[in-house]
Amino acid sequence: MAPKEVRFGLAIHGGSGVRDRQEMTPELERDYCAVLRECLTAGYELLRAGESSVAAVEAAIGVMEDSPLFNCGKGAAFTSAGTNELDASIMNGENLAAGGVAGVKHIRNPISLARLVMEKSPHVLMIGEGAETFAQAQGMELASADYFHTERQWKNLQERLKRKIPYGGKLEPGVPDSDTEHEYVSHGTVGAVALDSAGNLAAGTSTGGRMNKHPGRVGDSPIIGAGTYASNEACAVSTTGLGEYHMRLLSAREVAVLMIYRGLTVQDALDEVIRKKLVQLGGGGGAVAMDRQGNAAMSFSGKGMYRGSVGPDGRITVAVYES
Questions:
Q1: Are 54 and 202 in contact (CB under 8 A)?
Q2: Annotated catalytic residue: which of 79, 189, 207, 239?
Q3: What one-character DSSP code corresponds to residue 30?
Q4: Is the pLDDT score of 127 beyond 80?
Q5: What is the pLDDT of residues 212-244, one digit of tens each?
Q6: Please, which residues have CB within 8 angstroms of residue 309's CB and are 6 or more apart in sequence?
Q7: Cβ–Cβ contacts within 10 Å for residue 144, how many?
Q8: Residues contacting residue 2 through CB under 8 Å, at least 6 positions apart
């Protein structure tokens, strides 16, 4: 009898707020792709060793949280008050356990705190100072506010305030008096979905939120069903884009619903939500998903999305633009 094929896989996104091609230098694109590959390698090694999909998702997202290139952790966007407020969530598709944190200001890796909320508390979502007190009780060290300050994001905020760009608006490049022509992207929520060798799915999402958000604003990333969802019955999903629309649509859960009740494939369900329903609502963005057979799906409504995937063979693929 032939040995049973072991299926596992990992897919990630680094946000749909990609730079226009004319603004993306070859060096910068290489830097983005290098971090994406590092994320996939970190998660893959755990999956290959038989670790859980939850562990792989946490590891992959943690790499992006440690990079200043993405809008999460180290590279988080600023609120209108010049502070960094981070959100994250994680979900285990085996038992629908979930954990999230919102509005934390001193957590280097919010995805790890979200996992602690899921596994070490009776709660699903914790916010602000209470979440950070819980983090300390669990042995997690707090970081200073300076850790999250990057000049790229700070200049982005100042330019938006100077030009009075409304919340959710795009800061166009190429303005003559601007010294931030290559640094106008305000969003880059990151996420990961995985299937482990035990057949369990997991999903996670982490973000610094939209640039120039009002202090206290919470988006879709820590909201189960909106930014993150995983169920062994159907799929694991992580979204990116303006959270106000994902929350109204419950985008991540909607993908699973279409698969369960309409029998759509994971790719068709993802396209239905991201390219059709989200756009019809007035929003935009992207998502990655994985079904219980390990099929990865990616979809976005704009010109690109930082993304990548890896399967049991260890072959890593990454991309930024549509083609």
A1: yes
A2: 189
A3: H
A4: yes
A5: 999 999 999 999 999 999 999 999 999 999 999
A6: 9, 10, 11, 12, 40, 288, 296, 298, 316, 317
A7: 9
A8: none
Q: Residue 143 is which amino acid?
A: A
Calculate Rg over the CA atoms of the chain: 18
List the chain domain ranges. Answer: 9-166+186-234
Q: What is the pLDDT of residue 22?
A: 81
Q: How far apart are CA 35 and CA 92, in angstroms?
A: 25
Active site residue 189: yes
pLDDT digits 0-9 by tens, 267-314: 999 999 999 999 999 999 999 999 999 999 999 999 999 999 999 999
Spatial CA neighbour of 41 closest among 320, 321, 308, 322: 308
Nearest C-alpha neighbor of 189 from the set 295, 80, 69: 69
84 in the Ramachandran plot: left (φ > 0), alpha (ψ -120 to 50) or beta?
A: beta
Contact 194, 311 (CB under 8 A): no
**For the packed helices 53-65 and 26-48, what is the interaxial angle rounded to 10 degrees?**
150
DSSP 254-317: HHHHHHHHH---HHHHHHIIIIIIHHHHT--EEEEEEETT--EEEEESSSEEEEEEE-TT--EE
- H-type alpha helices, 100-241: 110-120, 128-137, 151-163
Are 184 and 169 in contact by the 8 Å Cβ rule? The answer is no
pTM of the model: 0.93
Confidence of residue 3 (pLDDT cuts 50, 70, 90): low
Q: Phi, psi (5° rounding) for residue 254?
A: -60, -35
CA–CA distances in Å: residue 320 to residues 224, 256, 260, 290, 300: 26, 25, 30, 19, 11
Cβ(39)–Cβ(12) below 8 Å: yes
Q: Residue 220: phi, psi to the nearest 5?
A: -85, -20
pLDDT > 70: what percent of the chain? 93
